[in-house]
Amino acid sequence: MTAAVSLPAFPAPLHWLNEPEQWSVDGDDALVITAAAGTDLFSDPGEPNRYANAPALVGRLDGDFTLSARVRLDLLSTFDAAVLLLHADGDRWAKFCLELSPQGTPTVVSVVNRGVSDDCNSMPMRGDDIRLRVSRVGSAFAFHIAEGDGPWSLIRYFALDGDPEVGFLAQSPTGDGATVRFEDIQYTPKRLSDLRNGE
Is residue 84 one of the residues assigned to a domain? Predict the structure, then answer.
């Protein structure tokens, strides 16, 4: 078990699921993670391939909450991604990604894993100021995305068994590695009143 990591914007101790190449906490609300080449978290639904070596920093948040971050990375290789992660165990997890598609486009991707991965590409992104958010709403979870200071758009609303930890992941499955910067990390201990009104 690695030593706990403190991030002032995150109100609980964090720990690594997999150690990164490099990492740093910058100020109160920024985290940088460098993933090595060939790192991923994915269980292919059509093949026996399972990958669980991407570096992820997670901690436990109780009750309803929202956790958001502005993500910055150079998307150089297919499936390089910045990720907000929910992780109950090796079979039960969910990730919300800004990921480079095979077509070379930054794309919003969500994956819910219940033994195998349910992989969904939602929309391409053209801007370079992207925020990701994960929320717990009672027994369910929601993924939202926003561009700049624009409204939040619902991408996915789902249940996940277990009591997942939440945090941050970087991946580079086909590339030589990727460095992800999570900025303006914000935690709010409250329940979203409406998943679809942009709040």
Answer: yes
Q: Domain holding 165: CATH number? A: 2.60.120.200
Say how many C-beta atoms besides its own lie within 10 A of residue 110's C-beta: 21
pLDDT digits (tens, 9 = 90+) for 65-86: 999 999 999 999 999 999 999 9
Inside any domain, residue 171: yes
Quote the percentage of the chain above a pLDDT of 70. Answer: 99
**15 and 57 Cβ atoms separated by less than 8 Å:** yes
Range of the domain at 165: 15-188
Q: What number of residues does the chain have?
A: 199
Mean pLDDT of the chain: 96
Structural domains of the chain, count = 1
In three-state form (DSSP H/G/I as H, E/B as E, the rest C), the secondary structure along the chain is CCCCECCCCCCCCEEEEECCCEEEEECCCEEEEEEECCECEEECCCCCCEEECCCEEEECCCCCEEEEEEEEECCCCCCCEEEEEEECCCCEEEEEEEEECCCCCEEEEEEEEECEEEEEEEEECCCCCEEEEEEEECCEEEEEEEECCCCCEEEEEEECCCCCEEEEEEEECCCCEEEEEEEEEEEECCCCCCCCCCC
Q: What is the pTM of this model?
A: 0.96
Cα torsion 153, 159, 161, 163: sign: positive
